[in-house]
Fold this sequence. Notes:
six-stranded parallel β-sheet, 22 strands, 35% helix
Amino acid sequence: MVVCGDDGLAHRLAAELRGVYGEQVTLVVPPSERTARPPVVGRPRAASVLLDRVSAAVGRGGAPAAPTAAPNAGADERVLEAAELTEAVLAEAGVERAAALALVHDDDETNIRAALTARRLNPRLRLVLRLYNRRLGQHIEELLDQAAALAYPDDDGAEASTTVLSDADTAAPALAATAVAGTSKVVQTEGLLLRAVERTLPGEGQAAGSGLYALALLSNGGTDHEPRLLPDDEEVRQAAGRTAVVLEQVSAAGVESAAPGRGVGGVPPLASLFSRRLRWSLAGLVGCVVALAVALWAVTPRLHPLRAFYLTLLDMFAIDDPALTAPLGRQLLQLLSGLVGLLLLPVLLAAVLEALGTFRSASALRKPPRGLGGHVVLLGLGKIGTRVLARLRELNVPVVCVESDPEARGLATARRLRVPVVLGDITQEGVLESAKIQRAQALLAVTSADTTNLEAVLYARTVRPDLRVVLRLYDDDFATAVYRTLRTAYPEALTRSRSVTHLAAPAFAGAMLGRQVLGAIPVERRVLVFAAVDVAGHPQLEGRTVREAFRAGSWRVLALKGRTDTPPDHVLEKGDRVVVAATRRGLAQLR
């Protein structure tokens, strides 16, 4: 396996392949990445690391430096340092004889250029690309698969597959669901919609009324400091009163609803053109017109009601003759109608000015409105924050964003979705107050700096000790310490820490191994992955019932492809394709 990247995802993916799946890995990183601390995933191996230095002159046509083995080096992992992913660097990494290549640089163009070169070097290579641009990713995937098919027209091309993934798309649903109280964890897979929720197990240890499975038991702060993934029935029965992640529903996947509050073609809805005060003023004037028309109809004999409305409008706009010879009641009503007409003129002018101002400010950022409450404060509008924002709006959750960079990529999305934004440094006093943090239901800190996220969360907790907080942290040891400390200091408030690379790495690793990882659910600092598996060739599944195929702590069969109901006594046959929930090691054992 060859992994090329320039950030934490590359290190975590290499550690996942080596520590969980037992694969030989070549890691290609820029020279500056050598000092980065690699994450600890799985059990560390006894062998040392082989360090190969590749000169930056390779990109200029020079010859690569000879590989130099570190003392006591083993063959579990090789590390190449290269400034650019040239053809010579990829050849030195062994792409020509590798089974799979993952290109997980933060820059889409770098990954695409390297993928085209790698496909030329090895048409049978399984490629996994990290691309943020979804539409471009679909075209690149088709292009690379077509190139592999043309190189070997007689081959089915099963091994030479191309998979385009986005760490932002993988992590955003989990981050959004964690930030919203009561929001389900949803994974859409194989035409099915799997929905899981956190709930307290009743006395009998079963999800009340659901008849489905407990996917995980959360840590209870006592003897169990770690969550238990995929517990067996006996463990669930003994866990009465403990919080668990329960599979609530398996249904057919439908089309997600669009975010509310958007007009056709990006035009603001009619209600947003005028303020609430102006709308009430217009309603009051309409009521006055109706009252005057009714009064005119009452005091004038043999007058039709429609003509009474017509005469009232004429009086309002002063285009009727004065009622000099009319009865006193008619004269008084004519004076009142004229007065209402005078009052109507400034209201109409205000309506026109407000409508023009709304269209003029449609491209500007909105400020948090007065009286806003029950919303989610989202810190950071980078790649991850943008995807999380879109997901929250799909869930109809009100959001206020805070961003320090006026050129952040997520500002365009916030402007299009008409989401209020506060521009300012999160660490400065008064910025979170401008986002109405006092009345928010949750704080979601997803900036790229761990210390910034932590500082924002600690300050928010001083303002609202019971505030639900979710912070993005990369370092596992640091995240565990922060999580336990915040949970101890604020036992009544919900605290969650998430790592984007931790959520995304299982999907990238599964794609490199030819396994279709469909989604992931975070369980505290661990991950439960969902994958599609063909029963054929798996003795742990083939010929067994769904109940017998369950292995506690490793995997559980949730559903058959295309079926929303899978009885426990159904026998899995060779042609079946199942959706399983598995731990990372359990998925490795199913290979």
